[in-house]
């Protein structure tokens, strides 16, 4: 089955002529020979530009590949503008499935005889259609509130599970045969990605994520999360407040309403770091199709987020190391960066710190105090990869979502305000967070958090202290008794060994004497002594067991 799917993938790539986009000098001879052998698969899109070919191919391959294209669409520094513009179509313009099918899914899931029982209006034309689900506009019958109904694509689970199995197979091959396979840990990365994709297939999980994010930003002026009607949500249907805003990718509309793009870009960075370091819970699918801008106050713009199927979390240890790494980068303390990587286990403990520090400085120093427009992040990523390979840096699967989200944030920042100084925007926030974590206030917060526990245990402390002192007073006598017991056991063991040796010797002697002595008396005496010794061994063994 996997072989069939692999053939299908190759067929789609060849039918869209993606092999022709790879320069000939990068293609090994056996790849060119294999392409000529598969002569019956021809390029059906010869006259289409490269961006259209790639977009159509990813759509044909399914949701796993569409999401990859969504991420690429935000990296305009790595792609030509025409390809980036076409890939941006994948964010919410995937071919929709039948409206009749969507309505039937809604009726079945919500146990309705007709949609009119719940909705006063229902638009059969989807507002948006993405790789996993599509969205329809509606109006609630009782409250007349505008809502959107998100419906999971039919049979999407089987498609995704089949592609995930194929990805696992490819990851295993890469891990085994690539020189950097074990360090890059592709199997672990795919396994981590599988978790996020499976979560995205459960709209109840998405509703829960949205409610949590809304609670975290309840009184925020930076991010608004729409209301989710949790009583109308099922595993394949989600009902949410309809929002009216400008898509973050529509720069012309933002400029038309005189939006402060500099402030908008800075707010986006602050929102991201707040989610990661304050809440340890961040929206991990922040491509432009999921982010809107409110029209209420263009000079102090507010973000509106939708689609909470993929979220990320960090434990306290990873969060602290990341914050310390960021601050060390901002302060250009590359020695600290190198030491933190060793302490966290991200590079081997025997790494040469001096050489690692020099390598990090070589990559990072040129990018500081420059706006995004002047930074070649593609080159920086390539150099960082070389550093990672040189020092056997291990890929951290739990950070893959964070890394992907950082790519989205950087891509959005480049589109909104290319002059944004990413470092100076984030540094004050992280320094403040670190002070809150390690200062006197942090200590008092931890004491306050543990106060209910200690107030419950405090009445027991005098009794525990009294019992502890008594045990401490008895300790020398207990140690003396234990030592005496050990000595006695040692003596018994020596006795058993001695009598066992004597019993064995006299037993052998009793058997050998009759062959050399004329009288049986000596053999009988030796046998009697052997029996007495064996009896002594038996008694001593029983005493040891008892």
TrEMBL record:
List of catalytic residues: 285 (proton acceptor)
Signal peptide: none
Pfam families, A to Z: ABC1
NCBIfam families: PRK04750.1, UbiB
Family according to the record: Belongs to the ABC1 family. UbiB subfamily. Belongs to the protein kinase superfamily. ADCK protein kinase family.
Cited function: Is probably a protein kinase regulator of UbiI activity which is involved in aerobic coenzyme Q (ubiquinone) biosynthesis.
The name this protein goes by in its record: Probable protein kinase UbiB
């Amino acid at each position: 089955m996997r072989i069939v799917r692999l053939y299908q993938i190759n067929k789609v790539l060849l039918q869209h002529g993606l092999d022709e986009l790879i320069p000939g000098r990068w293609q090994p001879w056996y790849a060119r020979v294999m392409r000529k052998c598969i002569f019956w698969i021809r390029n059906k899109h010869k006259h289409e530009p490269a961006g259209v070919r790639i977009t159509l191919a990813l759509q044909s391959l399914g949701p796993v590949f569409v999401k990859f294209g969504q991420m690429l669409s935000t990296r305009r520094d790595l792609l030509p503008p025409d390809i980036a513009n076409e890939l941006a179509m994948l964010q919410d313009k995937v071919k929709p499935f039948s409206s009749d099918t969507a309505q039937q899914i809604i009726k079945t899931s919500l146990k309705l005889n007709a949609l009119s029982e719940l909705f006063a209006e229902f638009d059969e034309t989807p507002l948006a259609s993405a790789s996993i689900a599509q969205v329809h506009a509606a109006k609630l019958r009782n409250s007349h509130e505008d809502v959107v109904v998100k419906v999971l694509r039919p049979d999407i689970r089987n498609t995704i599970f089949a592609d995930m199995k194929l990805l696992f197979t490819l990851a295993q091959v890469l891990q085994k045969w690539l020189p950097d396979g074990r360090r890059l840990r592709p199997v672990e990365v795919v396994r981590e990605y599988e978790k996020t994709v499976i979560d995205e297939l459960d709209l109840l999980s998405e509703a829960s994520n949205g409610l949590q994010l809304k609670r975290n930003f309840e009184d925020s002026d930076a991010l608004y999360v729409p209301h989710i009607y949790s009583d109308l949500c099922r595993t394949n249907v989600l009902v949410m407040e309809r929002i009216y805003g400008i898509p973050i990718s529509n720069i012309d509309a933002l400029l038309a309403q005189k939006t402060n793009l500099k402030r908008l870009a800075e707010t986006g960075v602050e929102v991201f770091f707040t989610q990661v370091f304050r809440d340890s819970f961040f929206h991990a699918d922040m491509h432009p199709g999921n982010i809107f801008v409110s029209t209420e106050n263009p000079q102090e713009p507010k973000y509106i987020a939708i689609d909470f199927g993929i979220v990320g979390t960090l434990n306290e240890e990873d969060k602290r190391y990341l914050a310390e790494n960021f601050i060390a980068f901002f302060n250009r303390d590359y020695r600290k960066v190198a030491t933190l990587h060793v302490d966290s286990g991200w590079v081997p403990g025997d790494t040469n710190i001096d050489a690692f520090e020099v390598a990090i400085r070589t990559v990072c120093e040129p990018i500081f105090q420059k706006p995004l427009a002047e930074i070649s992040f593609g080159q920086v990523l390539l150099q960082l990869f070389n550093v990672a390979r040189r020092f056997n840096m291990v890929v951290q699967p739990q950070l893959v979502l964070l890394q992907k989200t950082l790519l989205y944030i950087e891509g959005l920042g480049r589109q909104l305000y290319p002059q944004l100084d990413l470092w100076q925007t984030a540094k004050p926030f992280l320094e403040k967070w670190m002070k809150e974590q390690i200062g006197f206030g942090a200590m008092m917060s931890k004491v306050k958090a543990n106060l209910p526990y200690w107030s419950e245990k405090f009445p027991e402390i005098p009794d525990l202290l009294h019992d502890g002192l008594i045990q401490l007073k008895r300790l020398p006598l207990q140690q003396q008794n234990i030592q005496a017991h050990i000595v006695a056991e040692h003596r018994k063991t020596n006795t058993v060994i001695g009598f066992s040796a004597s019993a064995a010797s006299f037993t052998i002697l009793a058997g050998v004497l009759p062959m050399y002595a004329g009288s049986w008396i000596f053999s009988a005496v030796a046998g009697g002594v052997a029996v007495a010794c064996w009896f002594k061994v038996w008694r001593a063994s029983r005493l040891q067991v008892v």
